[in-house]
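Subject: Calcium-transporting ATPase

B.,
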Amino acid sequence: MANNTAEHPPGNSVAEGNHDGDFGVTVMDLRELMELRSAEGVSKIQDTHGDVQGLCRRLKTSAIEGLSGNPVDLEKRHTSFGKNFIPPKKAKSFLALVWEALQDVTLIILEIAALISLGLSFYHPPGGDSEACGQVAGGVEDEGEAQAGWIEGAAILFSVAIVVLVTAFNDWSKEKQFRGLQSRIEQEQKFTVIRKGQVIQIPVSEIVVGDIAQIKYGDLLPADGILIQGNDLKIDESSLTGESDHVRKSMEKDPMLLSGTHVMEGSGRMVVSAVGLNSQTGIIFTLLCAGDNEEVKKVKKSKKQGPPENRNKAKTQDGIALEIQPLKSEEATESEEKEEKEEVKPVKKVNVTKKEKSVLQGKLTKLAVQIGKAGLIMSALTVIILILYFVIDTFAVQGQSWTSECTPIYIQYFVKFFIIGVTVLVVAVPEGLPLAVTISLAYSVKKMMKDNNLVRHLDACETMGNATAICSDKTGTLTMNRMTVVQAYVNDTHFKTVPEPDAIKPETLEVMVNSISINSAYTTKILPPEKEGGLPRHVGNKTECALLGMVLQLKRDYQPIRDEVPEEKLYKVYTFNSSRKSMSTVLKNADGGFRMYSKGASEIVLRKCSSILDTQGQPRVFKPKDRDEMVRKVIEPMACDGLRTICVAYRDFPAEAGEPNWENENEILNELTCIVVVGIEDPVRPEVPDAIVKCQRAGITVRMVTGDNINTARAIAIKCGILLPGEDFLCMEGKEFNQQIRNDQGEVEQERLDKVWPKLRVLARSSPTDKHTLVKGIIDSTVLETRQVVAVTGDGTNDGPALKKADVGFAMGIAGTDVAKEASDIILTDDNFSSIVKAVMWGRNVYDSISKFLQFQLTVNVVAVIVAFTGACITQDSPLKAVQMLWVNLIMDTLASLALATEPPCESLLLRKPYGRNKPLISRTMMKNILGHAVYQLTIIFTLLFAGETIFNIDSGRNTPLHAPPSEHYTIVFNVFVMMQLFNEINARKIHGERNVFEGIYKNPIFCSVVLGTFILQIVIVQFGGKPFSCTALTIDQWLWCVFIGVGELLWGQLISAIPTHHLKFLMEAGHGTTKEEIKDEEMAEGADEIDHAEMELRRGQILWFRGLNRIQTQMDVVYTFQTGQAPVPGALRRQPSVVSQHNDSTAAKTLSSPTHVGLSASSSLTNSAGAVPPAAAASSSTAGSEWVSEAS
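Prediction pasted inline below.
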């Protein structure tokens, strides 16, 4: 280390790395400093440290070189100032999950029944076996049999235990998987810092106090810091303060940067001053955790005393505090609503727009409730009929009188009837549904990881299967985002390839190379390829990389020029943003004058040019008519080739004129001299045209929304196959789009939008607001018979609102900014459009897997319920015993959900149209299969039940006394029933009426092993199950007959699939989504509290899957709770966006995710009539989109 000392300025940690590590400032000093804002902070820094450089010296770091990266030094910093890590919330223990699973009502009923049964079996009343109790007691004399009465109760308890453990284990693994995903997202988050003078990227958790971090547009700040150098920096602090206006940061006025806030514009460097639990994020988090325990105590108290209102409040707050969710996301408001529904007296709530449940969840909840109700009615009927029959038979027909000795025996009968009733209910309720959904989703998510889809919100993957429209970005998604300059117009000559250096005048070349090298982010570089013979690596902004690449092609180098003019020497920088659409850098000349270099979208920069360099390299006048001619002859032909055009220009400010007013941008960015116009090609990704053809075949419309000019956009759309020759689709610019969809007051009208979007394929020069408006319009539209489900891709900070609004938001993993990833549901780790097609395939597969499971499950349900019911009514005893039913329930639910939910997807899934929002879960074909197979199974079982003893020549099992040994007859009925289910499971693999049910079966090892495993277990149960399972061993002949009847299922399945479905008009469909009428009603009753009854009834069926947001953001959002905690009206602190301000508001993606403002003023809720989030624009104005906007990231 010592040899470095001489090179580094004093104050760098390298020089002082061997000291005892006492820094000139403590954690508390820094914490106090970071709590100050703007002017207070500046004066505090000046009073205590002199300036920021003084603070850097005390932190033993250098503003230019950064830290040394010496492990000893880093360790010291960890001990003195803490690590940049916020500990996660403790996961629920396995026992807690077991306890949750035990809360299920049906299981509780079963447990009670089992306990009563157990208790009674041990109670032998004196003289209970006397003749006095009539024939009822017949057969109990056998002492051994009487002793075995406890087995049934014990077996039920055992089965319950298995169900509980399976459920708990599933929840536990789900949670674990989720945490794995969470930490993966966190590990992948890297940040740029300077160490030893080198710019490197390190994981966020390794950032230490004293690091010099580089910040740029689109970053999510990982720690608190103080600005040491900034260009035009604007930060969105809404996640901390709730203020949606962007805060301008500068060394003089406000250098305080806080963790969890977003950089919306500009760039700069900061010295890290607080990390982890000492940062503003961490402090809030600590408060929260402290609040946690108090809340729990409070809730416990409030449950004992106090009016219900307060109790409710405590409960809700507790719900929030414990689930440290991103508190402004819709999910959190949903969890609040759920908490409130649980209490009987809901508090008056502020109307908060609630994110719709995912399409599938909605349908499943409805369906499960319908089935549950039917099951309840059936089981109640069973119990009533059994009891009535028994009472009438015993007391009326036999004329017995009720005596005290017989009471326990009668009660034992009643308990037996009750258990049968409960079992019917258990079999009827498809509690395997949530399990199937979970398994299917979790399995898909795991596999999608391999297909470069990182799913952050579980339900996004099934929603994707229903997608009917994809609004895609152009740059980086459809194209390779590897820009190269292919044409140039310089010295009045149009070169169709990059010219040789000697073809350009030396003076022109000089000014061009300087302009490109200096007027670009210094973080943008071209590095040598990683592999021999590979392409050079482009780092930073891709458009700037293309220009630097051209400099290298002209046999010049940009690095020496940058070394000569380091960033500190840049006098003023106007960074790129979506309203400027250009970037300019000002240098101070030796003579006191200034030179400004500019570059940007060619139409925009040329409009500001008053001269151009001619063939001799001298400026000549450039009039508007010259400009029009240039647009016609140079820019349009380039754009029609699909090139993006960039103009590079400069301007000199003479010393004698004095220093201009840099704030007056319109004056400054004028009178430019055009140096060169280049055409940059961004080639279409080779796999995109194929992927788009697949989408179109699958019934998904792909639309391109881009900031590029319309000719470039159209050319790329034709190359991709979004626009096909000879079709009348619309291509329009943002400006025209807005004119067509807005009324005279400038408000968006759904009717006008409905005229435009069905034919729109390319929206060019669009602003982020336009993208959001389009997405919202398509989602809310009810013109077509199926409602649209929209997926959106985006990478820039300004795509946040649209990503959030969409049903599924895809963010780019490589080019995407943190803000975009934050707002998205799925991250494409390879930025590739064809990965979206894979997501569609997986999504449809999830949907189909659940339908397959339903088809299988419902067949079993229908048969088991009818058998139990009729059997009970006719023979006073269910042919299938409680334990057998539970076993059937286990194969049906847990094992079948495992087998059918893990079917891998196949390409044929992409050959059908999407289901849309209101397609029922159970189609006519499935209904035909369910009823058809039920008919076969019922026929067989009733035949066996009433004629089985004669067919197999065995004793009848009907009308046996209470504790009689299990009969062969009923064992055969049970075995045949299970065999039929096993073979029907193979039938259930196909739901669209395909003939070959074995197709691809070997590709699914889980399915094969489950079916084989079930078969082996069934043999064990029948042969050795004995009393607990009410089975006796069967002979080989009987087994063969059982299997043969089971195989009949497969043949019967072929017969059913031969019946054409369209003749069976009478078949009902079930499990519909929301219909148009329901949507209309919901909109009318918007002010009322929404309570979803299905959700209340099926609270357990809801899979609450935590939202996978980066944890830092989560804690930032928690501040919102604190505000609501003290505020009389939750949300009243939010600024009320008026209608006007909604259009030109510079709100960021973050504000969108907050619960929308309280509807106090009429004006504020105009655009919000359908309960939708206001279309906030993340860009600083809603001017038309830009050349660059899509990749300024």
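Confidence is low (pLDDT under 50) at residues 1-20, 136-146, 299-356, 1075-1193.

T.
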